[in-house]
Amino acid sequence: GRKGGHKGRARQYTSPEEIDAQLQAEKQKAREEEEQEEGGEGATGDPKKEKKSLDSDESDEDDEDYQQKRKGVEGLIDIENPNRVIQTTKKVTQLDLDGPKELSRREREEIEKQKAKERYMKMHLAGKTEQAKADLARLAIIRKQREEAARKKEEERK
User: Fold this and answer.
1) What is the pLDDT of residue 3?
2) Which of 18, 51, 98, 103 could be a cystine partner for 107, CB 3.0 to 4.6 Å?
């Protein structure tokens, strides 16, 4: 028959019901902790709330540090790297949609290319480009040849 794994035991799998039950228990535990924290603040009274509102700037900074999970020694040492870019998330109200949008190099080049093409087509239609002049000269030669051919046919008919 089948033997167990290399550690000497058969594998045990958790059922989806057990996983759901564990998740529910964790959520319930988190709710209870939040309720206890809220109850603790209410019991102490107004002085802490006033202090918290006065020190709101510091608590916001602490929250930002808390949100970023620090790796390794980062938590112990404050590193000031001028090249390090800290990603800040902007709120929808802070977004500047009306301001001029900066285009990338590729987008700028594509727009310039389209404008140059449009200018060339206008010049071409006006007959000011070298290619247009050559085309018009060819057309004039062809018209002359056709007129001569038409005259010869007329003369032959007469």
Assistant:
1) 62
2) 103
CA–CA gap between residue 86 and residue 92 (Å, rounded)? 19
Looking at residue 1, what is its pLDDT?
A: 55
Quote the pLDDT of residue 49. 47
Asked whether the CA dihedral 32, 53, 48, 67 is positive or negative, the reply is positive
**Which residues of the chain are under the pLDDT cut of 70?**
1-6, 8, 40-70, 98-99
| Sign of the CA dihedral running 71, 90, 56, 46 | negative
